[in-house]
User: Which sequence fits this backbone?
């Protein structure tokens, strides 16, 4: 099987594109099953907009008048392919403009005439048989419904040529620490999907379910996402700059603190630890909350714990400084700016258990 995989993300090629992250695994699976796959990043190609001149239907049948990478390289490759993967980020609930420009420039494969198709609807006769299609898209929002318009378009235009639709919501979260638990199994499922497509031209429902599995619950994703954007705004940084600077999103409430703490949790460092840590905060955020560690997992709750193994009293702002590596925890406790009661061995392990 000859496959042309077209990635229209403007972020492709620098390890930041989630379309690319997913496409890589799908392509890997296809190659494992013996397909010959070429990946094209549209951002590196010159694909001008269709002029609507219909020269490709009249004076130069099947040939676009524009001389660019589309007419000279991509369109011939597309015609030769058995399968085209349209991998697009979801922009405004649809395919992005780069991808739409590519699709519109495939017009020469049609003839101008109107004829009745099998279902009775009028369509254009085909000049060439187009490749079968796999739609792949990623979205920032966590709900599957965000793909409904793209899916409706793809089903209408590609009809029986559409072999699979692979849509991944919460794609941005998947690529961060939020997705660390599920990313490996999503990537594995994409490889499986790639093999299935080559071997049987379909993706099984089980594989699709593994690809679309939730990253975290929607409320947690929304809370952490909001903290992240607030951190970008407060520091006047783009998301990329914020990530590169390794800035820890700053919680402003106890609820946000409880959302962010489990993200840094290192299950390997916890081993079979069974413990409850209580925080009594003062200052800009006042109140108690606690974290229960058991079975390699951590769960947070507001209010004091029944019998904490360790209780920490600290100003909230100071604790955030410790979390983000700006304050030295040893000094803070030695100087009495924060106090700890209970299992002090556990206090010493906090850095390993949660990182910075
Ligand atoms: C112009 C623009 C429009 C977007 N529109 C949507 C949208 O309608 N729904 C959504 O869930 N995410 C939307 N997003 C978020 C992207 O889908 C998300 O960031 C995705 O990871 C981008 O793909 P990439 O990482 O491969 O570049 C939009 C992003 C941009 C830049």
Assistant:
């Amino acid at each position: 099987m000859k496959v042309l995989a077209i990635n229209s993300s403007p972020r492709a090629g620098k390890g930041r594109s989630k379309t690319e992250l997913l496409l890589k695994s799908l392509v890997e699976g296809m190659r494992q099953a013996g397909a010959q796959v070429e990946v094209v990043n549209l951002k590196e190609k010159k694909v001008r907009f269709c002029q609507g001149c219909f020269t490709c239907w009249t004076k130069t049948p099947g040939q676009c008048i524009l001389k660019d990478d589309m007419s000279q390289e991509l369109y011939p490759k597309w015609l030769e392919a058995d399968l085209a993967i349209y991998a697009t980020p979801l922009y405004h609930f649809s395919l992005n403009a780069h991808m739409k420009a590519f699709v519109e420039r495939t017009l020469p494969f049609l003839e101008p005439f109107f004829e009745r198709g099998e279902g009775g609807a009028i369509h254009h006769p085909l000049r060439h048989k187009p490749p079968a299609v796999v739609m792949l898209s990623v979205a920032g929002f966590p709900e599957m419904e965000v793909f409904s318009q793209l899916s409706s378009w793809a089903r209408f235009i590609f009809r029986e040529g559409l072999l699979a639709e692979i849509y991944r919501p919460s794609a941005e979260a998947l690529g961060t620490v939020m997705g660390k638990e599920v990313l490996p199994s999503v990537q594995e499922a994409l490889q499986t999907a790639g093999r299935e497509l080559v071997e049987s031209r379909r993706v099984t429902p089980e594989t699709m379910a593994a690809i679309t599995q939730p990253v975290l619950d929607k409320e947690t994703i929304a809370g952490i996402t909001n903290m992240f954007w607030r951190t970008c705004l407060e520091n006047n940084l783009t998301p990329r700059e914020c990530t590169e600077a390794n800035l820890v999103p700053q919680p402003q409430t106890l609820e946000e603190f409880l959302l962010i703490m489990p993200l840094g949790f290192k299950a390997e460092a916890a081993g079979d630890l069974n413990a409850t840590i209580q925080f009594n905060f003062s200052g800009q955020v006042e109140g108690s909350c606690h974290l229960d560690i058991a079975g390699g997992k951590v769960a947070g709750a507001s209010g004091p714990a029944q019998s904490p193994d360790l209780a920490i009293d600290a100003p909230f702002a100071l604790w955030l400084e410790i979390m983000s590596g700006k304050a030295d925890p040893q000094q803070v406790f030695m100087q009495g700016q924060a106090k700890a009661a209970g299992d002090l061995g556990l206090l010493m392990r906090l850095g390993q258990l949660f990182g910075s």
Notes: The CA atoms of residues 114 and 123 lie 5 Å apart. The first strand starts at residue 2 and ends at 7. DSSP finds 14 helices and twelve strands in the chain. The two ends are 48 Å apart (CA to CA).
